[in-house]
């Protein structure tokens, strides 16, 4: 099968049959690959938590084929939700709204709200349209690990017996922007490719991620998430240069992710791996998780990441780097 052209109609049929049977299916979205389950089937949802090793209080994101289905899942569709849906769906935006009665605790982690998005990837859209109902899908990785942006990453996470639809490399590469519309003032819960500025163009002021209560309101969630196994540090340019000199002197194995050119020391230091990262935020975001996965396999003792710019278009990358890092200078 062609890796980019992706799933055939028979694959889509198999995925829908599996979902109807209460089984899990991994599928591509434009952000990251998701681990999908029928959102109306509590036993199927419990399999998602078990497979990921995820605490049962940590809510899932509901994926729909189109915004017209919203009313089946939420208690009300406020004008802000309508405006965001019209502007950004299908696309990498998740909105949190009060749940409708009958929406399962297994989907919402027991909360009275539900997080919903309409993904843009053609394979996700084909599955959702053919299934005809909502599919709950967290990122298709074990709890706390880096999200998968290629089908092979999903197979690494779950080597056994999971149907994985092939959809090539995810175009966005980071999880969706999440905005809560539960309170009078919208609040950014997770930065993503759609920036806070873009949201504000449509619905006015949006409270910042990082403001009190802005982290997903779930017990047990920690800052360290989306993390490789190798310790990661994010450093400014001069701290990075110093760390490299020290590591080279000790012969310590180090991988560096930087948007800059490799310094002279990397040519003379066999234990130093220099990974040149893209200049633009969207390109950096698209490659970030695949790069972390690859560097994680090099057997180095540390991954050092040069700090990225402060601009709003880097918010999502900066957020994921800080979560991957043991220390964030
Ligand atoms: O891009 C994405 O959103 C991907 C793809 C597969 O669509 N999915 C994804 O799901 O990133 P997951 O489970 O890895 O992340 C779900 C996030 C968690 O941080 C969770 O706490 C938050 O959504 N969330 C879900 N329901 C929520 C709710 N009712 N209130 C607040 N946060 C919620
Ligand atoms: Mg996740």
Characterization of the model:
- The protein has 329 residues and is of the alpha/beta class.
- It has two domains: 9-203, DHBP synthase (Alpha-Beta Complex), CATH 3.90.870; 232-326, Threonylcarbamoyl-AMP synthase, C-terminal domain (Rossmann fold, 3-Layer(aba) Sandwich), CATH 3.40.50.11030.
- The protein is built from eleven helices and 14 strands.
- It has helices at residues 9-20, 42-52, 79-88, 105-108, 122-131, 151-157, 196-203, 237-250, 264-268, 281-296, 315-324; strands at residues 25-27, 34-38, 61-63, 93-98, 113-117, 135-136, 163-164, 177-180, 187-190, 232-235, 254-258, 272-276, 302-306, 327-328.
- The strands form two sheets. The chain has a nine-stranded mixed sheet, sandwiched between helices. The protein has a five-stranded parallel sheet with strand order 12-11-13-10-14, sandwiched between helices.
- Helix 1 (9-20) crosses helix 5 (122-131).
- The model is unreliable at 213-221 (pLDDT under 50).
- The protein binds threonylcarbamoyladenylate and magnesium ion.
Range of helix content: 25-40%
Q: How many domains would you count in the coordinates?
A: 2
Strand order of the largest sheet: 7-1-2-6-3-5-4-8-9
State the total count of DSSP E strands: 14
What is the first-to-last residue Cα distance? 44 Å
Approximate shape: globular
Structural class assignment: alpha/beta
Continuous helix count:
11
């Amino acid at each position: 099968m062609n890796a980019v052209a992706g799933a055939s109609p028979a694959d889509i049929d198999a995925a829908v049959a599996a979902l109807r049977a209460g089984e899990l299916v991994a599928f591509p979205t434009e952000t990251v690959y998701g681990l999908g389950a029928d959102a109306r089937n509590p036993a199927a949802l419990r399999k998602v938590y078990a497979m990921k090793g995820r605490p049962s209080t940590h809510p899932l994101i509901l994926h729909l084929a189109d915004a017209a289905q919203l009313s089946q899942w939420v208690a009300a569709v406020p004008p802000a939700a309508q405006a965001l849906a019209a502007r950004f769906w299908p696309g990498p935006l998740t909105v949190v709204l009060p749940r409708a009665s009958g929406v399962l605790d297994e989907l919402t982690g027991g909360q009275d709200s539900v997080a919903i998005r309409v993904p843009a990837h053609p394979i996700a859209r084909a599955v959702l349209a053919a299934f005809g109902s909502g599919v709950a899908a967290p990122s298709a990785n074990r709890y706390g690990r880096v999200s998968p942006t290629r089908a092979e990453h999903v197979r690494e996470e779950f080597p056994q017996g999971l149907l994985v639809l092939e959809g090539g490399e995810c175009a966005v590469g980071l999880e969706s922007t999440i905005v809560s519309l539960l309170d009078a003032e919208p609040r950014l819960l997770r930065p993503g490719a759609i920036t806070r500025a873009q949201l504000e163009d449509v619905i006015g002021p949006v409270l910042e991620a990082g403001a009190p209560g802005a982290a997903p309101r779930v017990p047990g969630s920690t800052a360290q998430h989306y993390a490789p196994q190798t310790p990661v540090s994010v450093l400014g340019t001069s701290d990075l240069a110093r760390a490299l000199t020290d590591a080279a002197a000790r012969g310590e194995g180090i991988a560096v992710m930087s948007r800059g050119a490799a310094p002279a020391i990397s040519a003379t230091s066999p234990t130093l791996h220099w990974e040149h990262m893209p200049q633009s935020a969207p390109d950096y975001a698209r490659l970030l998780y695949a790069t972390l996965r690859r560097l994680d396999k090099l057997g180095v003792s540390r991954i050092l990441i040069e700090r990225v710019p402060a601009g709003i278009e880097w918010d999502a990358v900066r957020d994921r780097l800080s979560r991957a890092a043991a220390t964030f200078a």
